[in-house]
């Protein structure tokens, strides 16, 4: 019964005083939209990178000589396999091929297509490749960015690499890597390990690094120690370090936006606070009138709480939905460039929809609490002053 | 029709004992607006507080309405000490016992007449249907029913006044306080207001009017005229 009249009045005020609230709703929508878009984007990028990373080997081993990376002997593969607990050991040739005319570089990955030890990601990738046709001539798989770049430079079906010996190696473009993996594979070229060896001028029995897995992560530190004892001049890169670096990178970028968000929200809350605190404001007079006709302080705060809660909820829903559409349907124009950085090759990433409800809850709380405080504190201050003064 | 309180006639409704009101107390800008005010008003009486601007009439009304607190003294309404009421009780008192008509109407400009009128009953516990029935009665009594759905900001001064009256009457208060009710009205609207006031008197309502309008002089239904000067009562004259 009681709520019926209260709800009626609340709805009435919200509709009748639309113009008073529209500014607050608009600013709220913009702030929530930006914050949600940044968080959606960074969550999606982190998710894509981490799922790609998940399929990579747990460790990458490179030989170090005189403090710099050197070619790694393939013979190490058997020695690493000999360590208990190690699986999926695969030699790899991995390096950047510089395309001088445009100062761009491709990431060339040479792998043994027939090695069952290759990691899951590559196995999935090679599943659809007709190996007989692929090996009928020198071929490679290229990322979307590489394909577009080469096409723009009139390399439609093949590309000619220049080897360290000064000779040229023409390689057929067999297929483009799946678009979904653009974040990682955009500038990547995958080719047979022998071909990569020739292009980078590595000797027989040499690779750039070796990847392997250690399923029991409790053994990771032991394995690292064993590798150092076994080879001495070795650099071991752990997947967990790379993971941490990815996380830090996007948390850092997200953090910058968070600071901007905080500055914006503090400014907005101050404006709201001032609106209610001003000596001659409509809000102040309205509270005075309500008090004069018998509303208690509690009634006033209840009205202001629900009135502004509705505004926060509406703004939140609109802001989050717009951010979702912007990031996952429109692929975040402008913002994606800030997050992806000055990419080597133009990258057209499709963001995987990742919505973390914990994050959404946090956005709501981080917005709703200061917003309501910025309204309720001055409203309370007015409500406790004699109605006669407030109505002036 | 509204509750008739004629049966209580003669009982003391409002008692003020040694009321003082000092603004900015304890500072160099301290100003004594009311000095040792003693007054009693019986049930069903219409009392006029007269005096020039600044004589303390409005301050006295705001204390009776519990819109402000006296610096010293006691105010009793219907046997209840309201001068020291905590907020919640003061709000209940304003919501149930009194209806105030302000000089500047103090209406919510963005709402319609009917929406303004129902405001005092929003937290009363009544359902909307009952509130609307009461609002209709109140607007009818105040002769503003024909403007019920019109926004207040589009009304004339007289219509705003009648809307404020309807709002003050919706909860059927026993005591009605009017602060300079005709100060912003033309003569025709002022006379209309006096007519409404008389009908309230006839219903047995206790009415206190603070005014310096000569139209209130010699009204047959006015029981007492209290003349104030410089924060004191200089003359309290029974009309009979």
Number of domains of chain A: 2
Strand proportion of chain A, as a percent range, falls in 15-25%
Q: Which stretches of chain B are poorly predicted, pLDDT < 50 over at least 5 residues? A: none
What would you report as the Rg of chain B, rounded to the nearest angstrom? 17 Å
Number of helices of chain A: 15
Explain this structure to me?
The complex is a heterodimer of chains A (392) and B (240). Chain A has 392 residues and is α+β, with helices and mostly antiparallel strands. Helix content of chain A is 57%, strand content 17%. Chain A has two domains: 2-52 and 245-391, no CATH class; 59-213, no CATH class. In chain A, strands 1, 2, 4, 5, 6, 7, 8, 9, 11 and 12 form a ten-stranded mixed β-sheet that branches. In chain A, strands 3-10 form a two-stranded antiparallel ribbon. In chain A, strand 4 (87-99) and strand 5 (104-111) form a beta hairpin. The two termini of chain A are 33 Å apart. In chain A, 34% of the residues are buried. In chain B, 28% of the residues lie in helices and 27% in strands. Chain B has helices at residues 57-64, 87-96, 113-118, 128-141, 157-169, 187-202, and strands at residues 12-23, 31-42, 46-50, 72-77, 80-81, 98-101, 175-179, 206-211, 224-229, 232-238. In chain B, helix 4 (128-141) packs across helix 5 (157-169). Chain B is globular. The interface between A and B is medium-sized, with 31 and 34 residues.
